[in-house]
Specification:
three-stranded antiparallel β-sheet, alpha+beta, 20% strand, seven-stranded mixed β-sheet
Length: 235
């Protein structure tokens, strides 16, 4: 993994970009003073000391008192695990204390960004109670093999339409139909109640429509059924 990717991922663990850069430097060089950190990272000394204090508070560095104040990095596995545990506790608190929302019928929601769309697809698959129909290009389908296999293991009906013959063979127990599909296309129906449709290219500007509106569910369900019938008769 490149240094830039490493820093990007560390930012996800409650570090600023500057703090992540400094932490990586500590992991590389070991114990350092504020002066040495500024020299190694190129971060202005006026910013280094506040970043070091923050890293100590966030559990990424230990402070070593002595003739010269120095810092040493917390083992990366320990830092990551501690941060995850802290986030899990906060997540549990939020779930237990969040105000209950007023239930309302699902409208039409536009989901933007490939990562957000993929997260929504995984949530839909995880929440599936009885059946799922999915038409997806192989570029998309391969990212959800594990979730689809789990549904099959739970004895839930899984119907797949895709161009990816090899990938379809991996999902033993699913009802699979091989067909040419548009690049990056996705059509997903879960429990005859929710739909998601659009394209995923991996771009932050990707968009998909998600809805629980029964009229849209029925239209898409009928379209997929018709396609399956055509495939059965090789039309």
């Amino acid at each position: 993994m490149s240094s830039s990717n490493l820093i990007e991922n560390l930012i996800s663990f409650n570090l600023t970009r500057q703090e992540a850069t400094i932490y990586v430097s500590f992991l590389t060089h070991g114990q350092m003073s504020g002066y040495e950190v500024a020299k190694e990272t190129g971060v202005a000394r006026s910013n280094v000391y506040s970043a070091l204090q923050s890293l100590v508070e966030k559990g990424a560095l230990y402070l070593i008192e002595g003739e010269t104040t120095k810092y040493t990095p917390v083992d990366v596995k320990e830092f990551l695990q501690n941060t995850i545990c802290d986030l899990q506790k906060k997540a549990l608190f939020i779930q237990e204390n969040i105000p209950q929302k007023i239930e309302s019928a699902e409208g039409y929601i536009t989901i933007v960004g490939a990562k957000n769309i993929e997260n929504k697809i995984r949530k839909m698959l995880c929440d599936t109670k009885e059946r799922v129909y999915i038409l997806a290009h192989s570029n998309i389908l391969k990212n959800f093999i594990n979730e689809l296999e789990n549904l099959v293991k739970e004895n839930k009906k899984v119907v797949i339409i895709s161009d990816w013959e090899c990938g379809l063979q991996k999902i033993s127990g699913a009802i699979c139909h091989q067909s040419q599909t548009e690049d990056n296309q996705i059509r997903l129906i879960t429990d005859s109640s929710f739909v998601l449709t659009g394209i995923i290219t991996g771009n932050i500007h990707d968009t998909c429509l998600y809805s629980g509106q029964q009229n849209l569910v029925d239209v898409m369900k009928e379209a997929l059924k018709n396609k399956i019938e055509l495939l059965k008769h090789n039309i």
